[in-house]
């Protein structure tokens, strides 16, 4: 069974490397924090309280304290990195995205194309409707490609083959109906308010209307399925 399942996530060795990098930066900071605070005091007459506190530690204490602090920062960044990317499970039967305590499954028979576009992994059906669009780190692209090709999924590369059909959304333009504008407006507000769940709900409703949406250059871009393909 295991040989028919491929899980793609941030490799453990990279997570350990991030932990080690944090600890190493903390260790190095123990030797430069004093000169840095002295320079800031000479330049601006003041320095942030935490920096002054760290600079006041004897070196014998600064080394373990700042090394542990750096390790803690490394753990935090690694955890956020893992949370952001989750795990993508590929089998001959379908694809499952495990992320932020939720799971999303797309059956193989529904899939007509798989590709990445920047930091997005996109799965479409045979009519180019987007069945799935999730953020994924570029460092995972090769492993994702290998996983999909292993089970003969229609891998289409690292550029959206429908890129030319996307247009930047202009609120109130006559190119879209009122309902679509309402959903794009709601999604824009959700993104601005950092409510990813609400933004994803709006994307799902747009998908049901035959509209694909992506974020580029601080703006929403949309594609009407079947138009300009």
UniProtKB/TrEMBL annotation:
<dbReference type="Pfam" id="PF23493">
    <property type="entry name" value="CysS_C"/>
</dbReference>
<feature type="domain" description="YqeB PH">
    <location>
        <begin position="7"/>
        <end position="156"/>
    </location>
</feature>
<feature type="transmembrane region" description="Helical">
    <location>
        <begin position="53"/>
        <end position="78"/>
    </location>
</feature>
<dbReference type="InterPro" id="IPR057798">
    <property type="entry name" value="PH_YqeB"/>
</dbReference>
<keyword id="KW-0812">Transmembrane</keyword>
<dbReference type="Pfam" id="PF23494">
    <property type="entry name" value="bPH_10"/>
</dbReference>
<dbReference type="InterPro" id="IPR056411">
    <property type="entry name" value="CysS_C"/>
</dbReference>
<keyword id="KW-1133">Transmembrane helix</keyword>
<keyword id="KW-0472">Membrane</keyword>
<feature type="transmembrane region" description="Helical">
    <location>
        <begin position="21"/>
        <end position="41"/>
    </location>
</feature>
<protein>
    <submittedName>
        <fullName>Uncharacterized protein</fullName>
    </submittedName>
</protein>
<feature type="domain" description="Cysteinyl-tRNA ligase anticodon binding">
    <location>
        <begin position="176"/>
        <end position="223"/>
    </location>
</feature>
């Amino acid at each position: 069974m295991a040989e028919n399942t491929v899980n793609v996530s941030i490799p453990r060795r990279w997570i350990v490397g991030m932990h080690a990098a944090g600890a190493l930066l903390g260790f190095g900071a123990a030797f430069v924090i004093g000169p840095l605070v002295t320079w800031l005091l000479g330049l601006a007459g003041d320095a942030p309280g935490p920096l002054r506190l760290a600079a006041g530690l004897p070196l014998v204490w600064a080394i373990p304290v700042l090394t542990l602090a750096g390790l803690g920062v490394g753990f935090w960044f690694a955890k956020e990195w893992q949370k952001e990317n989750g795990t993508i499970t590929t089998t001959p039967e379908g694809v499952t995205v495990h992320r932020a305590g939720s799971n999303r499954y797309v059956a193989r028979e529904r899939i007509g194309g798989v590709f990445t576009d920047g930091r997005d992994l996109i799965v479409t059906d045979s009519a180019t409707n987007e069945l799935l669009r999730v953020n994924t780190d570029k460092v995972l692209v090769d492993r994702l490609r290998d996983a999909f090709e292993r089970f003969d999924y229609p891998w289409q590369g690292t550029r959206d083959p429908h890129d030319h059909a996307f247009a930047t959304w202009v609120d109130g333009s006559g190119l879209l109906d009122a309902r679509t504008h309402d959903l794009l407006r709601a999604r824009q507000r959700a993104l601005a308010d950092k409510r990813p769940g609400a933004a994803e709900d709006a994307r799902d409703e747009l998908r049901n209307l035959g509209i694909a949406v992506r974020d580029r250059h601080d703006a929403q871009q949309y594609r009407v399925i079947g138009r300009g393909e």
